[in-house]
Each structure stands twice: as structure tokens, then as C-alpha cells.
Amino acid sequence: MACPVGPLSRSVSTARVSRVRLSMAAPEPPFDEQCNYEDRTPTTSKEKVVVLGSGWASVKFLQNIDTEKFDVTVVSPRNFFLFTPFLPSCVVGTVESRSIVEPIRKLLRHGARPITRKLRDATAGVTAENFSEARFLEAACTKIDPEQSCVYCQDISSVSGPCNAFRLDYDRLVVAVGATSNTFDTPGVAEHALFLKELGDASALRDRMLDAFESAALQDDPAEKTKLCTFVVVGAGPTGVEFAAELDDHIREDLASLYPAEVAASKVVLISSTDDLLSSYDKKISDFTKLLLEQSRVEVRSGVRVVEVRKDAVVCLDKKTKEEFIEPSFMTLWSTGVKPGRLVEELLAKIPEQTKRSGMLVDTGLLSYGSKNIYAAGDCAVLYTGNAMNEDLEKLFKRADADGNGALDKKELLALFNEVGDDYPQAEVFQFKIDEDFDTFDVDGSGTIELEEFKALLRTIDSSLRNLPPTAQVAGQMGGFLASRFNGETKKGFKYFHKGSMAYVGQDKAAAQVSMLKNLLPEMLQEQLPLVGEDIILTGGLAETVWRLLYLDMQISNRNKLQVGFDWTKQIIFGRDTSRF
User: Fold this and answer.
1) Are residues 551 and 433 in the same domain?
2) Domain boundary residue, one of 329, 351, 383
3) Is 226 part of a structural domain of the chain?
4) Are both 554 and 455 inside the same structural domain?
5) At what angle do helices 427-441 and 451-463 cross, to 10 degrees?
6) Could you tell me which of 49, 156, 201, 415 has the fewest CB atoms within 10 Å of its CB?
């Protein structure tokens, strides 16, 4: 069946493209009921696997899946893989954008497969000559139909043919579409803040930042210069900290000689909802990072929540004093976590067993709860490992109700979550939420939480939690594991192998928490030999060397490794490029 090319169909497509380009975000258009979706399901005797996405989880899956057993189709509106950890570096020109991308079609070839997978292929008689490549289709999935086991897709690029919409049936579906920035419904974020998830975001940030200095150079009033050259970063996780650090480096090392008056008036502000920066890292790293940033031009506002983003400012709330204040901002970067995109949210709404708001709930085989053939990996997946607080609601309530009055005050709740941390790893987050938002959960305003309020409290908080961070490391391991599971090479459940956490913190220094030694030990020995299993904490210049070496090794291709190395060398010799284009 042919797709319509009438005025309605074309205008819808054009409008979508325009919105995509203006927002600079990952394209995620709505399903178009009026479009005629052509069936492009391949005719094959193999089991059909459809993969959605071209990020870490997808690529690692595609590079390890046995294409002799499965007919694999990957669908993504982005025809390249993006090394997302280098996006902050890309904004300021430390690394060029072309150096951190690789075409998906190249990564689907036999030569791009890992050495271990090539050895397995060789034993099965698979060579580069007879290797069956997965097919790639550049399009956006607009709807997943779990009942019919099919997906609907549409070409949303600026150039599309007469048939730009199609349907694919699947035997197994792998959802690895990543996640979007979580605005927490904060007023003004969508309208006035910028994000850092895609190359388009990096380009928009770079253009706005350099534009600020050029516009400030036209002003004589120092106050106006400061107003234009004030940049606010909301969120003190790895992305927020690295961006603030890279921006400060760029201003001090490259812009100071070109815009001396403007740089003297400029300001970088980092806002953290918690008291610590990089709160998921070791306390030593958090303290080192805060000290180093305080020695730079980055001004840290910790224990502060942003309640509104305006065109030229952010409205902040000091969580201790409960006082509001305004922080001027010409450019606001929002980097406070992730949430599922529209496609995943709509799929979750169709499956009653899906109780999480933070992503698709999957078992240890990465199979989606409530489904027999939908799998999820990467940032859009939430791994269920059991021992959830929701299963022990009444027992926990009685345990906390020391005086037996049938209600818990704030002190009793905080004590409960402090006591059960060993049994429930998520208890620390619950404790933080109660300390911060007790009044929100006290629906009747009694000053205490009754059993029904307690149940609602746990369910509300638990629905937004994820027990694994949305990082490239987690997503890559999930993708590789799922391929092995499909191939029949393992029956074990997924277990995350944490190699460590790293962050560049500015001034040629980094912070690293290396955990490989601990993870190499059996679980029993990790408990019996705590000193041997302790994480290795590195800070300063040595950590920066480790950071560079490991990130260079993580590049998806030899071309990327060579280009990133060249970019670093070029930056050391000539500095970063400061032109707008």
C-alpha cells in the first residue's frame, strides 16, 4: 500500500521537522492516525528482531547479536552513534563534534564487531564475506503496538520520499531509545532552558555562549556585560559539573585574551539540589570537586532548588531557610536527570504490570514486565531486583510506629529509613525525599503520616526510582548481555559490573572512583575482605590522565580514537576555536 503524499500528509511532516530543528532535541513525533503505513516487514524464515535506537545499548547489542539466527532491523531517527560523555567538551571546542560520532551502518559491519565476537563467528564459519548484516532504517518510531507485535515508523527528516511511513512486525522487540531530560514540571524549563543530550544541543549551547560574549563586547556598562555573560548550570551530576568545569576552562584559557572586559564581568553558577556535588560518587570526590570549583570562577549554590526558569533568570529556593532568591542567567543549562520519552510513556500506559514512571520495568533477563517479547535496555529500562519496599508496607509501618498510635511523624519516618538501609538500598533516597518534602506527603496536614498516606508515599517515590544510573556504562553492558541472552550463550540474569565513575572537574584535573578490583572479587569475598575490595579514589592530575586514557579507549572506533587524540593535541597547542558558525 502506498503512503499518501497529499497536502495534509506533507504539512504534518514539515511541521514536525520544524519543531525538531527549533528544539534541538531528539525527534519524537506523535503517531499520525491519518497516515497510511506501508508494511515493510522482511520475508524471512529467521526470527525477526526489531531494535529501536542507536545509542550505547543498541550498538552493543547489534555488534554482538548472532545474525545467522536472527533477522535484525534497527530503526532510529539518528543515523550515527554518539559518544555522549564528550558533549560538554564538544560545546567549548575541546573535542570536535565529528570526532565523537560514527555512522551506524559502519558499526553494523563484520569488521566493527568486538574481537571476542569475531572469534565466536569464526568457529561458526562466519566470515566478513558471508556475514549477514542487520539492516538500518533512518526513521522515528511513533507507536509500539504490543498486541499486534508491530511498530509504526515515519521518516521525519527534511528530505523524504513519497512513502515516508511504514510498519514492521517483530518476534522480539528491543526498546533502547534512551531517555529525555526530566524537567520535574518546573515552570519555564521547556521554554527558556537548554539541554545537553544531542549534538544539536551542544551546537545551540555553543552558539548562545559565544553570542553572549560578542553581544557583551558591544556594551559599555559593566553591569550589562555581567548580565549577558552570566551562565547558570542546574544540576550537579557528572554532566552539569563537567559542563561548568569545561566552560570555566574555556573562559579562562581561550576567551580571556579576546574578551578581557567581558571575561572579567562573566560568571558561571552551578546549582545543586543536594549539599554535595557528584553526590553519587565518594564523599572525597565530592569535596575535592567543590573545593576545585570554588578556586575557579564557578560559583556553587548547594542545597538549592530551582522553582522557575525565566528568560533572563532562575528563581531559586534555599531548602534550609525556605527563602526564595533570583539568580540572573543569560543561558541556563538544565541537567537534573532523565525520564522516559513519549514513546515509552505511551507503551507503559498500555501495560498494567508497568508500575514505574522512571522507565520500563524489566526482569533480570531484560524482558519487560507484562510482555512476552518486548525487551528494554539502556536509559529507558529500570531493572527489578526484588526486595522492594512496596512488598513490606504494613510491616515497615508497624516497625516505625514505636508508640503504637497508628501514625508516623517526620522523626519516626527518618529513623525508619535510616535503620533499613542494609535491606533496602533505596532507603537513602526515601530518607532524602521525606526530609525535603514531608509536607507534600502529609495530605491532611495533621503533621503525621497515617498508613494509607504511608502507602501512597512509598508508591509515589518508588515509581520514580531506578536502581542503576542512566550511564553509558550501564547501557553498554545491558546491550551486550541481551545479545548473549538472545544467542543462547547465557541463562544467567543481568548483573551490572561497575568499573568505576569518572568526571572532569576543570583546570586539567579530574576525579575518578575506580571499582574494578572490588567487582572482580566474588560477592562472598567482597564482604570478607573489605580492604581488598575498596574502591580506588583518584583526584587531580593523575585522575585526569586516567580519565583521558579510559575515555579514549571507550571510543567506538579507531577513527574516533585517532580524532579525539588529535583534537586534544590541537587544543593543547593552539587552544580552542572561538568562532561562531
Assistant:
1) no
2) 383
3) no
4) no
5) 120
6) 415
pLDDT over 60 (residue 26)? no
Residue 244, CB-side half-sphere exposure with 13 Å CA sphere: 38
Q: Domain span at residue 73? A: 7-77+108-179+340-383
Question: What distance in Å separates the CA atoms of residue 533 and residue 526, rounded to the nearest whole number?
Answer: 6
Residues 27 and 160 in one domain: yes
**Does residue 38 sit in helix, strand or coil?**
strand
Q: Is 549 found in the same domain as 498?
A: yes
Domain membership flag for residue 85? no
Q: What is the CATH number of the domain that holds 171?
A: 3.50.50.60
For residues 362 and 381, is the Cβ–Cβ distance under 8 A? yes
- CA 508 distance to own-chain centroid: 25
Picking from 38, 367, 359, 366, the residue whose alpha carbon sits closest to that of residue 177 is: 359
Could you tell me the CATH number of the domain that includes residue 439? 1.10.238.10
For residue 507, the 8-state DSSP code is T
Beta bridge partners of 51: 74, 174
Alpha-helix residue ranges (DSSP H) falling in 93-219: 104-107, 115-123, 189-192, 199-216
User: Quick one: pLDDT at residue 462?
Assistant: 66
* DSSP 8-state symbol, 368: B
Count of the separate structural domains present in the chain: 3
pLDDT in tens, 204-228: 999 999 999 999 999 999 999 999 9
pLDDT (0 to 100) of residue 286: 87
Do residue 427 and residue 557 come from a single domain? no
Which residue in 561, 556, 564 sits closest to 106, CA to CA? 556
Which has the closest alpha carbon to 51: 154, 166, 134?
134
CA distance 483 to 490: 10
Q: Does pLDDT of 306 surpass 50?
A: yes
Lookup: cell for 209: 555562549
32 domain-assigned:
yes
* Distance separating alpha carbons of residues 88 and 46, to the nearest angstrom: 42
Cell of 426: 533505596
Q: Which three cell numbers stand for residue 556?
A: 567506538
CA 110 to mean position of chain CA atoms: 28
Cβ distance 132 to 67 under 8 Å?
yes
CA distance 367 to 369: 6
User: How far is 219 from 135, CA to CA, in rounded Å?
Assistant: 54
The verdict on 49 and 121 lying in the same domain is yes
The 3-state DSSP class for residue 562 equals helix
Q: What is the pLDDT of residue 164?
A: 85
* Residues 34 and 150 both lie in one domain: yes
Q: What is the mean pLDDT of the chain?
A: 87
User: Phi and psi of 277, rounded to 5°?
Assistant: -90, 150
DSSP 377-388: -GGGEEE--S--
Indicate whether 24 and 167 sit together in one domain: yes
